[in-house]
Here is the input.
Amino acid sequence: VQLQASGGGLVQAGGSLRLSCAGSGIIFSGKNLGWHRQAPGKQRELVAFISSVGNTYYADSVKGRFAISRDNGKKMVYLQMNNLKPEDTAVYYCKVAQTGEEHWGPGTQVTVSS
Here is the structure.
């Protein structure tokens, strides 16, 4: 199983980025998908989550700015990030999970300058 995140980079505050996570050796259907992030000196936190049936959850800090989506056929999960803020700076990780099983991607750096 491999997950590969991409789309990170350096952006000015107020800008947008779209993160993508591609899976191989794994079926996305029936699994919950999420994006987490970890800023320097902080614990990893859940940013957005999409269930196997499409229900979504967002951390309060990103509600109204971020949108998670999935394409099971392409084995992809996306995170559209708009109106980025310096506090969104972190390494972003995708995660695929179901009961008793979880897989993490290696992370992609997002840096938002003020």
